[in-house]
Amino acid sequence: MLCPDCNEPLVVYELEGVEIDHCLECGGTWLDFGELELLGEIAGIHPGRITGALANPKTSGKCSRRCPKCRRRLDAVELPDADSIEIDRCRVGHGIWFDRGETAAVIAAFGPDGKESADADPEECAVARFFSNLYEDELKQDPATGK
Length: 147
Description:
- It contains five helices and seven strands, in the order βββααββββααα.
- β6 (about 85-90) and β7 (about 95-100) form a beta hairpin.
- The longest helix has 9 residues, at about 100-110.
- The chain is about 25% helix and about 25% strand.
- The chain is α+β, with helices and mostly antiparallel strands.
């Protein structure tokens, strides 16, 4: 699969049976339909919290990115329960695109115990640790130079 943002090949990582497609070039992450909910369950988030937020997002409009599965334009949607994070999702349900760092932000916003992230200890959350490790090298880079 190719990255919806920069058209580079996506690298597949696995966390407890959930495949996570990640772009090493731009730092974005593609999750197939249902994978965000599975990651939420691994993180200890009450089933249905993320699904509910995804069921009724505020549509911001079409974006220029295309679904890596069906190549249709993705819709930009805002998740109100996640500090108004805007993500891009396939309108026919293939999956969701997250820009660099947004996956961890969404998981953290819902909290491992169903509370807001301020109440959650990210060191106790396997998903937060996974994404922290995944983005570790990128977070150390100077944003101006990318090195």
